TrEMBL record:
Keywords: TPR repeat. InterPro entries: PPR_rpt (IPR002885), TPR-like_helical_dom_sf (IPR011990), TPR_rpt (IPR019734). TPR repeats lie at residues 208-241. This is Tetratricopeptide repeat protein.
Amino acid sequence: MKNLLYGLVLLLFASCSSENNNQITQKEDYDIYLASEPRSNTSKYFELWDSKIKKDSSQLMSFGIVGSEYSRFFQNTGKIAYLKKAEQVLEKAVEIAAVGKAGYYRALARNYISQHRFMEALQMADSARATNNGINQSQCLLFDVHMELGNYDTARAQLDSIKDMTDFGYLIRLAKWNDYKGDLDATIRFMEKAMKKVETAKNESLKLWSYTNLADYYGHAGRIKDSYNHYLKALEIDPGNAYAKKGIAWIVFSHENRPKEAMRILDSVTKNYKSPDYYLLKAEIAGYMGDDLKSLNNLEKYFQHVSNPDYGDMYNAHNVSLYLTETEEYAKALRLAKKEVANRPTPESYSLLAYSYFKMGNVEKALEIVESQIEGKTFEPGILLNAAEIYKAAGYDKKVIDLKQELLSAVYELGPGTKQDIVNL
């Protein structure tokens, strides 16, 4: 009996040690950031310039500054109304500008990118480039837009046109290009170089952007501790940053398998931050915990948010995925996937289209799309998981085997709920 008890103690100790070895986050690191107050939706700076805008105003500087502030409010709160207000102000600035027009074209293009209005963003970027003012900035923007549209050869040409290994803007885009090509080591190397530049320059907003993006890349590379530390660095600069908190919640959920703690973090975020995708993540975590009611409640909150017409096409991809996996509205998914391909013909959009055909039982059409539009053109694990399911249904066992190990190594990125799906391939 004594030996049995001793064995149980050892087993319990080993279990606890294993759990501790897997856990890298500590509440005391991030709890201080979870109680942050709601972000201010105004400032003396904003009120000063907003007051200068009258009906039929032509005070151009006021429009540019107010538009920038509305964009900042959107980033701070996730409320779509601010992004739409920024759009209105910037469109007015483009209309009335006689000088400095290129800058307003670029600002409006970035607003359209945020709204997933990529073709309109391209028009603004082309207009900015045509002015021959701020050529480098316009070429950077054109790279961004063409990457979003899946025009990769054109994007590469724009990247080559701005080549400068000492420039932050070039380095972050070179990192993005290497991520697209599947070279994660190079991606991280260039992002680290970019980060060091802004740390030296002490630009707080660019440091914040660099830390959160590098944290994402570290996570993809399995460098979870580095990812966690950089999300914390971001929160040191901006204690209310929802994206960094979401990143930490994902580590807690996907790496440490502590869904309750992840939910606690996200609950603190969604008190003040209203971006719809946060409710989707909460629904996923609740479903993983077996709390179907909480999962449904969060899905309802998501759909309530995206029913606002101001969101336009911003959540088409998310909606297609939900129609395919949650509501089983396959015909609805197919219609929306076709629209998404028309708006944005990327491997991601084609993956949604292929998966819609697959769910409707048209494996042949799904396979055709995978082979022509996805195979060899992306390294995104979510897209490859859908492709693997289609390959399996088509009897392409060798391709499934080739993908299976790669997908198992991406479970952190895909989420713990996908592991069994991959094993079952």
